[in-house]
Amino acid sequence: MARPLNINISIEVLTSENELTAPEKRAWDKAKEATNNAYAPYSNFLVGAALLLEDGTIHIGNNQENAAYPSGLCAERTALFGKSAVLPDMPIELIAVAARKAGTEAFLCGSPCGGCRQVMTEYENRQGKPIKILLQGKGTEIYRLASVSDLLPMQFSKMDLLG
Ligand code: THU
């Protein structure tokens, strides 16, 4: 007999930036600033990501496109791979992501792509500690997620590979 399997995910909706903690606000501002150095001449869609690390420092990334389209990389992965190359053992507290169209100032409501969710999952599992996520919501709202597993339920992880 078929039965439903309901998975609950939790998203906190903040009414504005004013509800962010001071470290969250620093990461949020850095993610927005990081859109300035996105290289997106093909999509004109500028994305910035900022990782708030356990020691309070911030590591940023932005999307880097290529004439051979699949060779480009999203902002979130640019940030995560760059940080992991230099500070592999430093836990990540939070990832803030911001996106806007080139030539415009307004940040868009949006959510990371599937590939970036998978990579976030890997690093969350690697550090054994949740990574919080901040995303632009509707209007002035900000979405705060307590863990990458709220963005990617039913994950494929090393447990599936190695048992
Ligand atoms: N992009 C990101 O940087 N992050 C995402 O999560 C989704 C998409 C970039 C990839 C590409 O450079 C542009 O946005 C349009 O897809």
UniProtKB/TrEMBL annotation:
Matches recorded under CDD domains: cytidine_deaminase
The CMP/dCMP-type deaminase domain, residue ranges: 22-150
Biological processes, Gene Ontology terms: nucleobase-containing small molecule metabolic process; pyrimidine-containing compound metabolic process
A Pfam entry, by short name: dCMP_cyt_deam_1
PROSITE patterns in alphabetical order: CYT_DCMP_DEAMINASES_1 (PS00903), CYT_DCMP_DEAMINASES_2 (PS51747)
Record has Zinc as a keyword: yes
InterPro entries, per database record: APOBEC/CMP_deaminase_Zn-bd (IPR016192), CMP_dCMP_dom (IPR002125), Cyt/Deoxycyt_deaminase (IPR050202), Cytidine_deaminase-like (IPR016193)
Keywords from the UniProt entry: Hydrolase, Metal-binding, Zinc
UniProt GO molecular function: cytidine deaminase activity; identical protein binding; zinc ion binding
EC number(s) recorded for this UniProt protein: 3.5.4.5
GO terms for cellular component: cytosol
UniProt key word Glycosyltransferase: no
UniProt cross-references to SUPFAM superfamilies, sorted A to Z: Cytidine deaminase-like
Highest taxon listed in the record's lineage: Bacteria
Protein family according to the UniProt entry: Belongs to the cytidine and deoxycytidylate deaminase family.
PANTHER family registered for this protein in UniProt: CYTIDINE DEAMINASE
Name of the molecule in the record: Cytidine deaminase
Native source species: Adhaeribacter soli
